[in-house]
Amino acid sequence: RLLQAILEALRGEKQIDQTAAQSRALLTTIRALFIPQNGANLAEAEVGALATFDKVYDVIRDVVRRADSATDQWITGTIDSLGAIGSVKVSSVAKVIFLLQHLNPQSQRRVRVSAENVAALLYPRLGAPWDPHLKDVRLACEKLRDEHFVGEEPETGFRFYRAEEQSFQKDVARQPVDEAKLRALLFGTVEAEVKALALDSLVVAGGHKLPVTVDVHASAHSLPDPLGRASGLSLQVLWQKTGSQAVHTSLLAAQYASALHLALWVAAPGAEAEDLARRALKLEGAIAEYANRLGHQAAAFLKAEQAKLNTLKEEALPQAVRAALAGCVAIHRGVD
């Protein structure tokens, strides 16, 4: 059924709207897999060999070229020259991504184009080790993404970029990231999430609320003096840069034991949040550059990219920050 669905998607509804035509196309493809054509020749394969979908791509390549000749040229040219990762050719992974993405028209998910599903359709033979195979496929997917051939949509998974999108993604990758802006975006999101948890106030007797000052720090060295004069209640969030040496929370607890007005919140490593913030700033810079260069000609294209930027800033980044905060260590009155 998967093969039939792919053929229908590639040929188009108008071209294959009869049951007899569907059956002929399916039988022709299956027959081609077993004869010495395009390297399939499964009739001569060892017992246990499976019909992988990169071979399906090869035997229906005429259909593929009619559907999208530009991507076919990428796959059989530039991508094929990328070679293999372990036992998996990068071009084989690209072929399966291409076939599966056509099952998701206009972001309507039927099959998620994930590394796991791609690996399943490239599983070479019965009894072959799965974990090394899946690892190789994942690395090949990352290679395709790093080379800006494919992107990954939240709902539908991997898909090939169009030529304009690929050019834009290369611009995104080239954008510099100002570390001060990165810290501002991250810390602003952390503060917003802390306030969303209602930690910027403390309820006392009679239902009154005392304000709590929230500050975010990149290093323990910038934390306030525990012996300093208290100006009010304070929550100090320590969000260290990825790769920094971990702080000893027990030492911080001892150091701030007498600072009753002050609580510390040491966030868990936030590598994912930092990566998302970096991606958001790169995308923001590329959008501004593209708009200045092309103006209204790129308005429709940039509208979609702006929507992605909004999703990054308003959904993905806050979610990653929440995950890091959920794994935090709280310190107050010498207890962590």
The total count of helices amounts to: 13
**Uncertain parts:** none
Give the oligomeric state. single chain
* Count of DSSP strands: 9
- Backbone structural class: alpha/beta
Q: Report the helical percentage.
A: 40-55%
* Average of pLDDT: 85
Radius of gyration: 27 Å
Short description:
This protein is an alpha/beta fold. The chain has helices at residues 2-11, 19-33, 53-59, 61-67, 69-79, 90-101, 115-121, 130-146, 163-174, 179-196, 249-255, 271-294, 299-326, and strands at 84-85, 88-89, 150-153, 157-160, 201-203, 209-217, 233-238, 262-266, 329-331.
Which helices and strands, and how do they pair?
Blueprint: H1 2-11, H2 19-33, H3 53-59, H4 61-67, H5 69-79, E1 84-85, E2 88-89, H6 90-101, H7 115-121, H8 130-146, E3 150-153, E4 157-160, H9 163-174, H10 179-196, E5 201-203, E6 209-217, E7 233-238, H11 249-255, E8 262-266, H12 271-294, H13 299-326, E9 329-331
Parallel strand pairs: 6-7, 7-8
Antiparallel strand pairs: 1-2, 3-4, 5-6, 8-9
